[in-house]
Amino acid sequence: MKSYDIAVLGGDGIGPEVVAEECKVLAVVATRFNLRLNFTEYNLGGERFLRTGELLPESVLTELRGHDAILLGALGTPGVPVGVLERGIILALRTRLDQYVNVRPVRLLPGVTSPVADITTDRCDMIVLRENIEGLYGGAGGISYRGTPAEVATQESVNTYFGVERLVRVGFERAQVRDGRLTMFHKTNVLGYAGSLWTRVVDELAEEFSDVQVDYVNIDAACLYLVTQPERFDVIVTDSMFGDIITDLGAAVTGGIGLAPSASLSPSSEMPGSFEPIHGSAPDIAGKGIANPIGAILAGGLCLADLGEVEAAQMVEEAVVAVLSLGEETLNQTEPPPTAEIGDLVAAVAERLEL
Ligand code: IPM
Ligand code: MG
């Protein structure tokens, strides 16, 4: 029996609630595929920080490295200063585990209605590969003369050839097994230095991957096309900041942030990936049991796919689609439908689904 060690970091707010449903579904699917998933919970997040001052202790990081995957819920607690959990846990995990690829599918699933009137499932199926460590997210910059009229703040986008090349390479590899099309989003007409490096990397790799069709779109125009012509895109490569923004837009177009999953991966190392819904901790609805667990459940599917359990991953996705296709009437008998009820429904479908 194949066995995987999975670290579970529910985090703050609705994080633990949605991750519980994710684990419920993964457990059912694992049984069907004769896999053993060993879940170990870790308590990280705002509550622990406020209590102990700890963010991501080295000892925890070392233990996480020993796992096959990490399931994240969400981080964010009122009372914790802005940026502390983001830099201290979320970005620290991505950097210290060298998770340089952030994979974000932007796909309209059957059973979901896009808020954009004529977007149908066949028109919207892409993945965004977001560079996850560098660019503006690298954190370079500083403040001089703070609090004086002469104050200067710089926030620099740092792009290394090494970092961009390894991300874009994954993009080409993914394009080869998808529809064979890769688009780079950037703002090369204004951000000339970073833009030049990104363009040269894409052009160089385009020669190596001659079976992939390459395109470039300015990030502002990309916002337009994502809404008006989503079929234009198959695999997108972009930097951390543009990728952050465009994937929220992608989530909106494909039915909302509650449905969207994300995977931070380190394909060239042995480090575990992190799998999470892209939504935040939503403290306003925490503890009410009404958060939508679908984004988290789909993140569990991305996790299985990354572990090489492709059929099991497919089963998670198909079970989710089956539940989404039950339609609003069934799901909204109570409004919004309870977190656990959706998890139970997906788990029940997964129990009897034939692929
Ligand atoms: C995301 C989030 C994070 C990011 C924040 C919380 C640091 O917005 O995963 O998209 O900007 O990457
Ligand atoms: Mg974001």
Account of the 3D structure:
By secondary structure, the protein is α/β, with parallel strands linked by helices. The protein has 2 domains: 1-102 and 257-355, Isopropylmalate Dehydrogenase (3-Layer(aba) Sandwich); 114-254, Isopropylmalate Dehydrogenase (3-Layer(aba) Sandwich), CATH 3.40.718.10. 43% of the residues lie in helices and 20% in strands. It contains 12 helices and 12 strands. The chain has helices spanning 15-32, 46-52, 58-65, 84-96, 161-177, 192-208, 219-228, 240-253, 294-306, 310-324, 327-331, 339-352, and strands at residues 2-11, 35-41, 69-74, 101-107, 125-131, 141-144, 152-155, 181-186, 213-218, 235-238, 261-265, 273-277. A 10-stranded mixed beta sheet has the order 2-1-3-12-11-4-5-10-8-9, sandwiched between helices. Strands 6-7 form a two-stranded antiparallel ribbon. Strand 8 (181-186), helix 6 and strand 9 (213-218) form a beta-alpha-beta unit. Helix 1 (15-32) runs parallel beside helix 12 (339-352). The radius of gyration is 20 Å and the shape is globular. The mean pLDDT is 96. The structure holds 3-isopropylmalic acid and magnesium ion. 3-isopropylmalic acid binds at residues 86, 90, 244, 278.
